[in-house]
Amino acid sequence: MDDRNETIDVQSGVVELDDAVASTTILESTFGDDIAIEQVALSRLSLSPSNVRRKAPTGIEGLADSIAAKGLLQNLVAHPMKGARGKKLKLCVCAGQRRLAALQLLVERGVISPDEPIPVKVVTEAEAVAASLIENHAREPMHGADQAMAFRMLIEEGKSADYIAALFSVPVLIVQRRLKIANVSPRLLDVFRDDGMSIEQVIALALTDDLELQERLWFDAPQPWLREPHQLRAAITNEEVEVRNNPLVGFVTLAAYEAAGGFVRRDLFSDDENAGYIADAALLQQLATDRLIEVAQTISGEGWKWVETRVKRDYSELSAYGRLSSRTRDMTTKEEREFAKLQKARDMATNALNAYYDDESGDETRKSAMR
């Protein structure tokens, strides 16, 4: 699948989804496009738990100064608070976290009243996560941890990976990769969110769904270099066989291994179609041995006295055997005639090649003389 629509900022962990791709999935919501904007008292507004941006907002004071000078240029998006009753329901802001914080700061400063009317588009609670993710995606790029968790929240709401891919016009593979990152320990995602680890390190840890193992590899590492991506990957897959360039996998084939019930730990973050790790090395060895026995039986049928096969070469055993010494014999009359023909063909080719180079040298000399 084409993955060019995905941009990852390795240093910051920021993930952007760019360039629309075609999709046939039908979206069942317009996310408030058909709803009028209401004027709501600021005191009725609070931050929604459905707001997908978990990283602490920055630049609030500067935004507050801008709003005080020029007014609020864009509405907020909110949904009714769960369990709220009455005519004037409390609303939870799911898109506009920084603007809400700036407005609340202006209240603290005494610049505006708590009952200041604020333009708000009210959506349903079911639409809150998607609305928040859409707005944050369209603005400052979200941190990869926040986006991954937002995708998982949509899945938990009952949305499919195909639906999310259609919603943001990205390949399904990107959604699957975000969901894989969301399976990393929350403690480690906090480290990632605070720029304490790189996207490559998160990707390496995502190879396993064992949260305790993830945390142990990161927090209990005796040396910082053990947190390098390749070291984390090696620790997670230390008893597994990498599929890429493995001769046994090539001999048995991945399809045959999986058909026999073998599990493959897939690497969703690799562009290689067969990237992954063989979890059952013993099964792979057995399948290779069984196939070699079939090959040996075929060869034995050709008339060999005995045939023995192995999945691995034993160099210590081979070293016990010497080499047969070579000897030179005289050619037969037929071989001498064939050898003479080959010598003649060789000499003719050599003469033709020398003549070609001599001609090339003459051309260069004539060109130099003319200049």
Describe the fold and architecture.
This protein is an alpha+beta fold and 371 residues long. It has 3 domains: 177 residues, Conserved hypothetical protein from pyrococcus furiosus pfu- 392566-001, ParB domain (Alpha-Beta Complex); 81 residues, no CATH class; 40 residues. It has a 5-stranded mixed β-sheet. Strand 1 and strand 2 form a beta hairpin. Helix 5 crosses helix 6.
Q: What features would you highlight for this structure?
A:
disordered N terminus; single chain; Conserved hypothetical protein from pyrococcus furiosus pfu- 392566-001, ParB domain; 371 residues; 10% strand; alpha+beta; 3 domains; elongated
Count of all domains? 3
Radius of gyration: 34 Å
Identify low-pLDDT runs. Answer: 1-32
For the record, what CATH class of the largest domain applies? Alpha Beta
- The total count of helices amounts to 15
- Sheet having the most strands: 5 strands, mixed
Structural class by sheet pairing and helices? alpha+beta
Shape assignment:
elongated
Strand order of the largest sheet: 3-7-5-6-4
Level-2 CATH architecture of the largest domain: Alpha-Beta Complex
